[in-house]
Amino acid sequence: MITPHQVIVRPVVTEKSNDLTAQKNQYVFEVQSSANKIEIKHAVEMVFGVRVSGVRTQVVRAEQRRVGRYYGRRPAWKKAIVTLHPEDSIDLYGEES
Asked: Could you read off the pLDDT of 7-32 as tens digits, one per residue?
């Protein structure tokens, strides 16, 4: 069994994820590809101490990249969009003390 800290790989910080955070109180994480929605919900609740109201997942397909004449592939990964209770928030940047 994987621990909650192993389920969440990293937060995804982009312009689109920042808009989701500001408008809909949703946070985006890269998660283990074997984790399901229930494991992701429990991991976010335990690690950040918040209440999760919904989880959406999607698998980001691998991309083919080229460097000079050589081709390679970027790995596929799983993305989770976590919706929090309206009163809760996660401080990803360490701004709140």
From this structure: 999 999 999 999 999 999 999 999 99
Which pLDDT score is estimated for 95?
77
Residue 45, phi then psi, degrees to nearest 5: -65, -40
Residue 13 lies in domain: 4-84
CA atoms within 13 A on the CB side of 83: 8
Cβ proximity of 25 and 48 under 8 Å: no
d(CA 63, CA 88): 35
Average pLDDT value for residue range 71-77: 96
Would 59 be classed as within a structural domain? yes
Instruction: Name the pTM for this structure.
Output: 0.90
User: Among residues 47, 33, 53, which one has the least CA distance to residue 3?
Assistant: 47
The answer to the question of residue 35 being in a domain is yes
Q: How far is CA 48 from CA 18, 51, 52, 84, in A?
A: 18, 9, 10, 11
